[in-house]
Amino acid sequence: MMLEKLKQTFTVTEVKEQKKNLTFFTVPKEQMEMMLITLRDHHDYKHLSFIVGIDMIEDGVFKLTYMLYNYETNHSFGIHCNIDREKAEMDSFHHLWEQVGTYQRELREMLGINFEGSPRLEENLSLDEGWDGPPPMRRDFDTKEYSNNTYFQREGRVNYDPREYMREQLYPTFPKTESDKLLNGGGKK
Amino acid sequence: MFTPDRSKYPKHVNGRPEIDLSSGKYTKVWHGPQHPGITGNMALEITLCGDEVVESITHVGYLHRGFEKLMERRTFIQCFPIVCRIAVPEPAFNEYCFSAALEELSDIEIPEQAQWLRTFNLELMRLSSFLMWIGGMAGALGQGTIGQWCVTHRDYVADLFEEMTGGRIYHMYMLPGGVRAPLPPGFKERAFKVFDGIEKMLDAVDKVLYNNYVFKQRTQGLGIITRDMIERYGVVGPNARACGVKRDVRLDEPYVKYDELDFDYVTANASDAYARAVCRFEETLQSIDLCRQVLNKMPKDGPFHTKTPNVMNWKVAPGETYAKAECTRGEYGFYMVTDGSDKPRRVHARGPSMTHAICLMEQLAINTNVSDIAGLMVSIHTYPPEVER
């Protein structure tokens, strides 16, 4: 009912009713601000639960989700908005709710999305000042490779393959090929 | 009430005060991260003019372990022991939200007994966390004895948890598909004994702390959250209820067995640190009552776990959902996105501290006396790991 009304003004696509109290839909980037204001001021969706960014690397977009909640009807709207991954920019909505600024700081830090005009956007929440890697929540950020290139092993430290090490400790006389077979499920398919 | 002399104040440029430290008028103090009056590993960078706060900036990141990134690289069952680490003093809410989201996405219905056991575990967790909070609040305002009483009784609750789940702090009890174990024999009587002890202790706390002149003088009028701030800052939980706003996920959108229990919103009016303390005290008593109700209404036995797919190779169809619960600080939820593989695509933990600890705290700290910062901070009740995750 309400969605029908919204559809008259906005380009609402990919509507999905997940459960009784939760509906997801997608709107284009440029209609997002108007959508949030309409829902907040005219339909009582006054509580913003969170903003989260999902890296859809296969589609080349970041999918931002704004979760709004209505305390009168106990209904939530999850509003998606796809933005280009290469040119990651989104309008800032810090003037609508105070906590939006904090969420936008987190999104800039973790996904590298720029929110023009958002207050204190450059201040990192958790990464320290010396962080020079890419935004860590992006899918193409390889944590293992980064830590191998950035940090170094303590001197005198030896790494063992756990399977190999246990075999040598427990069954030193057992032939290697036989033990491998047993460890891989006894040759059963 | 304390009325500040505005003439000393710095000019505000772009919403922030212009502070010239070399003028000698201002002092910068770090409150935390290693400070007994701080809730968790968090720091406030405070600028003082005399003993009055003119600017406060919250710094987190001392506990960052990248939980959300870790979960993207792990199978669902491997994520399960990670999630409880997100809020250390109350892991049960994380376990519940994660399990509920996963069950919803893979269409699993859990048995009735498991729902009762989950309700009991969540409510006992709330009791344990509130006991810790009352002790912390008293400690922050110089009454360490009450902190010791509360922590002692919290330990008895931890004993109950140990009996029920095997763990004292991290229980990993509510796993996807139900719970891990039923209640041991004779548990109900032992639990009731602990509850009686806690009620007796809380009676003493009411007399010693809540009727204490010093405590009242220091907390009344401190950190008032006005009615319009509730919407603008997204305030939830006891912080909102202390302002008279009726918001409680347990009653608004009942989950597990809360719709079969008899309880109501606990509210206060003044919305200052004292009202929040009273609100939480009442909720502690309510929590004991709910625990008793659950134990009395719960069926004696029944299946407590349902069949799930092989957890080593559990693939969940593409979808997304948001499962939420009322933790001690308000709305807590897990937003989970799956893409058909055996790992979650994205898991986001929504904690109330994200708003309370940063924008609300920074706002409330202004004009406060520096000696009240610890009390103010504890009265908002924040856990920094939720912010940085």
Task: Give the structure's gist in a few sentences.
Chain A has helices at 2-9, 32-42, 100-111, 143-150, 162-170, 176-183; strands at residues 13-19, 22-26, 47-56, 61-70, 75-84, 89-91, 114-116.
Description:
The complex is a heterodimer of chains A (189) and B (389). Chain A starts with a helix and ends in a 6-residue tail after the last helix. Chain A is an alpha/beta fold. Chain A is 30% helix and 25% strand. Chain B has helices at residues 67-72, 76-83, 92-105, 112-140, 144-165, 187-210, 213-219, 227-233, 238-241, 249-252, 273-297, 353-365, 373-380, 385-388, and strands at residues 12-13, 16-17, 26-31, 43-49, 52-59, 319-327, 330-338, 344-350. In chain B, strands 3-4-5 form a 3-stranded antiparallel sheet. Chain B has a 3-stranded antiparallel sheet with strand order 6-7-8. The mean pLDDT of chain B is 89. In chain B, 45% of the residues lie in helices and 13% in strands. Chain B is globular and about 70 Å long. With 389 residues, chain B is of the alpha+beta class. Chain B has 2 domains: 1-62 and 354-389, no CATH class; 67-351, Cytochrome-c3 Hydrogenase, chain B, CATH 1.10.645.10. Chain B starts with 11 loop residues before the first strand and ends with a helix. Classes of the chains: A alpha/beta (189), B alpha+beta (389). Chain A binds chain B through residues 18-19, 21-22, 24, 46-50, 52, 54-55, 65, 67, 71, 74, 76, 78, 97-99, 101-103, 119, 124-128, 136-137, 139, 143, and chain B through 14-15, 60-61, 64, 66, 68-69, 72-73, 104, 231-234, 236, 247, 252-253, 319-322, 324, 331, 333, 335, 337, 345-346, 348, 350, 354-355, 358-360, 363, 387-388.
